[in-house]
Specification:
There is one protein chain. It is built from seven helices and seven strands. It is α/β, with parallel strands linked by helices and about 290 residues long. Helix 1 packs parallel to helix 2, helix 1 crosses helix 7 and helix 3 packs parallel to helix 4. About 35% of the residues lie in helices and about 15% in strands. The radius of gyration is 19 Å and the shape is globular. The chain has a single domain, classed as Rossmann fold (3-Layer(aba) Sandwich). It binds nicotinamide-adenine-dinucleotide. The site of nicotinamide-adenine-dinucleotide (NAD) has 29 residues, from helix 1 and helix 6.
Length: about 290
């Protein structure tokens, strides 16, 4: 028996990249006629010359490809407009609505306005989230409160209003993070707010059940998005051991969101889907 019989065979990272992972698969009308709001539907600008697609933009584009009309809410007009332009260039239906989710009074009217323009509401994807990256020693009250206001409070307010007007059979998605389970990022406001989102998702599911409305949470791991690249620039050792030898893509987050917001997941409720290549399950490559 040779010495390396039990050595793991490591495949080329590209072997786990499929047409879906790259946003190149054909559509199947899985959301035909659905009316969906995506919050945080743009994506941040980074120093990257050719940035990868972010989670919010990827899910907005994918929902539209699958037949939904998408209300793209974002604080940054250019970011929301770029998502709408991408959808329109593919023949899809979308419009932008500019809201800073830190403005609590703006949230309920925005849900109503978008619902009126959509002609009803079947889905709400709460992707908006920020991370200021401060370790505990340097945490401030302002930074703590801002992470919580965007990551948790705004999700609560959007869901509260949506539950009042969403059609039975509707679906709500919250975007949490693998950081909800790990202190690896030394980023306590982000990590704890992302953990709070998981409990909030269950509370929304509980409140929605009598109305036939579901709520689930997606918790991505290490993703190659503009947000992920910014995090890697802060911490270069961030994603050295990722499963399959690569980070996930925004499209892979979007396909999970597509399943959870569609009727295909009609009995999936109050669930958190970790979208991390198995990282939380202990699957890691040697650095
Ligand atoms: N590496 C990753 O990409 C990763 C991993 C795990 C979880 N997540 C989660 O995914 C979500 C974001 O992913 P993304 O790729 O779309 O990020 P992104 O930062 O590129 O885009 C987020 C969008 O939210 C908007 N936004 C920020 N603050 C806002 C505010 N106050 N009001 C309204 N809009 C605001 C931004 O303008 C931007 O267009 C977050 O919830 C994040 O926690 C990301």
């Amino acid at each position: 028996m040779s010495a390396n019989t039990h050595a793991p065979q490591t495949i080329d990272p590209s072997a786990s990249l499929h047409a879906e992972s790259l946003g190149l698969a054909k559509s199947h009308g899985r959301l035909a006629g659905r009316r969906i709001i995506v919050v945080g539907a743009g994506q941040r600008k980074t120093v990257d010359e050719a940035p990868p697609i972010g989670n919010g933009r990827a899910m907005s584009v994918l929902f539209a490809r699958e037949g939904a009309t998408v209300a793209c809410i974002d604080a940054v007009k250019d970011a929301a407009d770029a998502t709408v332009d991408q959808i329109a260039s593919e023949g899809g239906k979308a419009f932008a609505d500019i809201v800073d989710v830190l403005d609590t009074a703006a949230i309920a009217p925005a849900v109503q306005r978008c619902t009126d323009r959509l002609g009803g509401l079947d889905g709400l994807a709460l992707n908006v989230g920020i991370s200021q990256g401060l370790p505990l020693q340097r945490m401030t009250v302002e930074a703590w409160d801002k992470d919580y206001a965007v990551n948790v409070r705004s999700h609560m307010l959007f869901a509260q209003r949506a539950l009042e007007i969403m059609s039975p059979g509707g679906s709500i998605i919250l975007m949490s993070s693998l950081a909800s389970q790990r202190a690896g990022g030394r980023n306590p406001a982000y990590e704890s707010s992302k953990a709070a989102q998981i409990a909030l998702g269950r509370a929304i599911a509980r409140a929605g059940e009598p109305k036939g409305i579901r709520c689930n949470v997606i918790a991505p791991g290490f993703m190659d998005t503009p947000m992920g690249r910014d995090a890697s620039r802060r911490r270069s050792d961030r994603a050295l051991t990722v499963p399959f030898g690569r980070q996930g893509t925004g499209w892979e987050v979007a396909y999970a969101a597509l399943f959870l917001i569609s009727n295909e997941s009609s009995y999936v409720n109050a669930h958190t889907l970790f979208l991390d290549g198995g990282h939380l399950g202990g699957i890691q490559r040697e650095a």
